[in-house]
Specification:
0% strand; mainly alpha; 69% helix; TetR_C_25; HTH-type_TetR-like_transc_reg; 10 helices; elongated
């Protein structure tokens, strides 16, 4: 095997990117069982060229994961502009250019693995920042465990989204923009009601629970005693 460090021609870089992007779309549509031959056919190249650029299907998947995470970071940066009105998830899920990326992420969440964990961690970190800012601004009540609350909010949102897709699957998981807009339209009112007006009329269940487990450690626990 040659180990020289010669630069790769621009045409090779372009071919590599085209194969990677086609693989992301194919995996989003059909899942990660799709083969290299299918991906090669989508691009109009030979399976040998796919192997030339990536070496194996696992390495192609790794390249896809890395590119998707880079796109997520871009979406996170853009969502800061309208963070006051939309969550990162809503910004990401309803932006047309991220539709295929979202389909790939959902496949990854179902499949598990590093990308799924990284994506969820990104969202939990974002939620903790947004909720912390809301608490500081007096728009949200503090929690006994801000990290745990942010994790719950994130997993609840993702769980509802994935269950909705499972029960009423769209025709094409690589084109989810319309589906996601309907999903957010359906959940916005009940979500805002729960967050704004609450659900229970007394705190008896919380008091009983705290008598059993006590306040969790944290700087906010004393604020609720």
């Amino acid at each position: 095997m040659r180990s020289d460090k010669r630069s790769v021609p621009l045409s090779d870089l372009t071919a590599r990117a085209r194969i990677r992007d086609a693989a992301i779309e194919r995996f989003a549509r059909d899942g990660f069982g799709a083969g290299l031959r299918t991906v090669a056919g989508d691009v109009g190249v030979s399976p040998a060229l796919v192997l030339h650029h990536f070496g194996s299907k696992d390495r192609l998947r790794q390249a896809c994961d890395e590119h998707v995470l880079a796109q997520i970071r871009t979406a996170k940066s853009e969502s800061i502009v309208d963070a006051g009105t939309r969550s990162f998830l809503e910004h990401f899920a309803t932006a047309e250019r991220y539709s295929t990326i979202l389909g790939y992420v959902l496949r990854s969440l179902l499949d598990g693995g590093p990308l799924a964990r990284a994506f969820v961690q990104h969202m939990i970190d974002d939620a903790e920042q947004y909720v912390g800012a809301a608490v500081s601004a007096g728009l949200a009540v503090p929690s006994r465990d801000e990290r745990a609350r942010s994790r719950y909010l994130t997993l609840s949102a993702l769980g509802a989204m994935m269950l909705s897709i499972t029960l009423d699957p769209p025709e094409d998981l690589s084109n989810l923009t319309g589906f996601m807009r309907r999903f957010f339209a359906e959940i916005t009112l009940p979500t805002l009601e729960l967050y704004t007006e609450g659900f229970l009329t007394t705190r008896r269940m919380l008091d009983d629970y705290l008598l059993y487990v006590g306040d969790p450690p944290g700087e906010n626990a004393a604020q609720h005693s």
